[in-house]
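Human: I'm a chemist; would you kindly supply sequence and structure tokens for a protein?

Assistant:
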Amino acid sequence: MSGVLIGFAIIAVIIAAGYVIGRIRLLGPHAPLVLARLVYFVLAPSLLFTILATTPVEQLFSSELAIAALAAFSSIALFALVARLVWRRKAPEAIIGSLASGYVNANNIGIPVAVYVLGDAAASAPIILLQLLVIAPIGLTLLDVTTKGRGSILSTIVQPLRNPILIGSGLGVLVSVTGVEVPAPVMEPFLIVGAASVPLMLLNYGISLHGQRILQPKSGRRDVLLASTIKLLVMPVAAWVFARFVFGLEGQELFVAVGLAALPTAQNVFNYAQLHQRGMIVARDTILITTVGSLPVLLLVAALLN
């Protein structure tokens, strides 16, 4: 279990450094938005291209992909139903809360957990594929439509194709599926640029924490608590049910499926909220609560299933 603790310790240190940067105003008042755009348009697409391009295609399209999809969409749908039908939340806020409930941190926490706990560096690749080729395009398209006005059907269809995250991920999957060998001099710039994505995303998240307190009155704390509960408890249980009783997984395969579902909410959700200027508090607080809460959940999953 030292791998889980090491992974969380590294993340905590980087977020703390971002908090200090925000506290001393080192980068100025516009730093969060500038960093968010840099990550979204340049760094993250490069990272995802390299990860997906170097993962064997049979590992990308496996039973883990189906289990991750069922668990994620169950969690997303549960929050959306409560937020829209019971609490009557506006669509953009409901979308951000739904993403916070089912969009896992498969990169900067998932990869260390995959390496040190699950024993396979590419174990999180199917979830990355699902989130960035399916969940993120759907969520970002809905956010664009609900925040910028309803465009034509054609523009709604074309919008995801202009998404840099989708473009980078799609090209990575294409390389993996076709088996094309990308020359090292061509791949190296993507590796270098992509390597900056995770630390900058964490630093930016730390910057955003300065001057903020979680679960403040009138800040949407019911949404935060619901999203956090779904992410930490409902999603891992859903993954266990689907993996064990639908796909018949046992042993290490079952442990991997449930362990990945127990990962906290991804910083990407806060990045999307920042870009659209909606639901930022819900995204920020849910990420913080699930990042702290996922450690005991992951340890419990390991104790029960490993």
In short: The first helix runs from residue 2 to 23.
